[in-house]
């Protein structure tokens, strides 16, 4: 028992350390810039090691507690471990860079993103034509299109439409002011993406299984209805920014917004519970503990849908943007009450409600704080 308690302290201690580092990193990025945060935190060996310690101690703790007997819980945590493994493989083996082509020019090399090293391609790439499609009746670009000859094959690359060959994926990035040249992003990650996506699929299956167990098919239906309604509304919008013209925008935003709505509801009921008598507080405790499942799983689904979308559009599924980082912090903070078998705090209704009230601050930081204080690629959201 003493060894199990020690493992528990290591696992949850590593999780708290990750949360502190992630929050601090967004402040470091704001003060010292993105490059400093990437070099000294996100891209450092100790940051990778910290995630490794969290993953290993969590899995060992699960085994010692014999939680593997609960198949859905095992799949859920195993999926998270596979996602971390995929991220590690990408970190260690992936190559990422840029190729700049003028119209009619042929190259067989590209420039590495981090150290400007020239890397070879196993085929020639020629820019045949670059074109810009505009919104009808306006001067606003609707899409940027590069027509390439890759080897002996003709292809077209545009925003949200990539081209893949022999494990190399090409993304439209920018273009020359005279519209006679194109800048393409190249990502070569033959192993990491497959491992990571396997984790995403297993995580989705585990979340659906737990939701079926906790809220039943009626609960799943009630959860799906507002998501579908919001998805339909967003899908009818016509954003002017080319990269936002993707069907994944509606899926990503709709599940995130419904998740935030549920988390706000949990916060309000937590306040009511703290101001109520014991019996009512216990009823609201059971309600909030149940609602936390769809709220958290929708948030997780929104984060990982966004990751897939980012991989399609920008060649990476995670960029440690401040909004991404705080969404991850929010997900991890709200995941802690699921571990009430290990943490006695969450078995007490009053302490649970206080925790939900304080956890709301991470959601507020994700939704508003990043936009108004930290900035970043998602600061407009």
TrEMBL record:
The answer to whether the entry has keyword Ubl conjugation is no
Which UniProt key words apply to this protein?
Cytochrome c-type biogenesis, Membrane, Transmembrane, Transmembrane helix
One GO BP annotation is: cytochrome complex assembly
Question: What are the transmembrane regions?
Answer: 41-61, 73-94, 191-213, 220-237, 249-275, 287-314, 326-345, 352-375
Q: Pfam families, from UniProt?
A: Cytochrom_C_asm, ResB
What topology in the membrane does the UniProt record assign? Answer: Multi-pass membrane protein
Q: What is its main location?
A: membrane
Q: Where in or outside the cell is it found?
A: Membrane
- Domain ResB-like stretches: 68-183
GO molecular function terms here?
heme binding
- Any Gene Ontology CC annotation: plasma membrane
Q: Where is the Cytochrome c assembly protein domain?
A: 213-370
Q: What is this protein called?
A: Cytochrome c biogenesis protein CcsA
Organism of origin is termite gut metagenome
